[in-house]
Amino acid sequence: xxxxxxxxxxxxxxxxxxxxxxxxxxxxxxxxxxxxxxxxxxxxxxxxxxxxxxxxxxxxxxxxxxxxxxxxxxxxxxxxxxxxxxxxxxxxxxxxxxxxxxxxxxxxxxxxxxxxxxxxxxxxxxxxxxxxxxxxxxxxxxxxxxxxxxxxxxxxxxxxxxxxxxxxxxxxxxxxxxxxxxxxxxxxxxxxxxxxxxxxxxxxxxxxxxxxxxxxxxxxxxxxxxxxxxxxxxxxxxxxxxxxxxxxxxxxxxxxxxxxxxxxxxxxxxxxxxxxxxxxxxxxxxxxxxxxxxxxxxxxxxxxxxxxxxxxxxxxxxxxxxxxxxxxxxxxxxxxxxxxxxxxxxxxxxxxxxxxxxxxxxxxxxxxxxxxxxxxxxxxxxxxxxxxxxxxxxxxxxxxxxxxxxxxxxxxxxxxxxxxxxxxxxxxxxxxxxxxxxxxxxxxxxxxxxxxxxxxxxxxxxxxxxxxxxxxx
Length: 473
What we know:
By secondary structure, the chain is mostly helical. It has helices spanning about 1-25, 30-35, 40-45, 50-85, 90-100, 105-125, 135-145, 160-175, 190-205, 220-230, 240-255, 260, 315-325, 350-355, 355-365, 375-385, 390-395, 400-405, 415-425, 445, 455-460, and strands spanning about 270-275, 275-285, 305, 335, 345, 430-435, 440, 460-465, 470. Helix 11 (about 240-255) packs across helix 13 (about 315-325). The longest helix has about 35 residues, at about 50-85.
């Protein structure tokens, strides 16, 4: 029985192979060759009503179906391409460019061109900045830097004057005018203007303008301890916890005044523990010194891991409690609620974030010029005083040059006091000099001859015994 089944299976397999072979062979055979095949000859001997018109109609129908299929596939491809890539307008492109421009830079550019236009209208017959040639631009810019004044009529400090000129240059670039760089020392078309600007800035400085620059004060370690002792920092309330993470975002990771805080997200912080202890891992994004564009392609965003070595005030625990209260999602700064450690979905406003450092220092009773810049200045100053290398300080603060980070380093009051003691005049001291007995001092050479002094007395010597001379400085 099994042999019979094997025979039937082998016959079926052979029939299938022959059919596949014939189907593959039909593609390479002509119509006359196909008609000579035994299998087809039997079919053709049958009585079949064959009309060539029917064949042509079948071919036309097949061609139309193929064309429609191709058209539908093309429409599907176009739809998929549109859904994948999309299309943008010129307005959308401009909005993208504007959105990635620093807000302070936009304000400075707007302030500069408005100041120039007000001067231009008052001066009369001054062309628009965008319509000037290199000769007229060189001519009128000389007069502008000499004649421009504040609204109250006073002169601008030299640095402010320079910022106005930079704003005008940015305005020209925004208007797609790139061949009028009047600050380029290699461009001799504006050599006279550059000399005038340089002389004007020196003149303003000699008048005392811009010499008193008020900078944010760093928060010293003793001040920081006072903030803790006054319970401004801590986990006893949602506001105190927010004060804590805000201050240490500035100090540990060198976040700037406002722009880096406003866009901060919970997922930028990773909390963990390894063989060195608990840590806070911060992943920075866009900042003033790192935008991620073509000019910064070789730079890296901030990637800082801070180990929390103070067991009594382990900052990793504070950050964990804060991020837990935020639900590990969304904006990092939200409105604190009065009940326990909870925060609403409402994001802190601009003015609120800008004033957080003032609130912290005022609640702790500190006196000084404390702003949000104080946190970053605190970071640079304390690392500098501890002898940390400038390159390591730059990795925390985000500065790209050593000259820039040096501006943030401030000597604390203790060091300033020590330096002052060294440079102060010497204090009054009494030198008690005990002379040996019977010292003869001949003072005649010092006194010289005097007409009122007798020659006999002149030849005599003064003798001092057991005397103490006090010299007062």
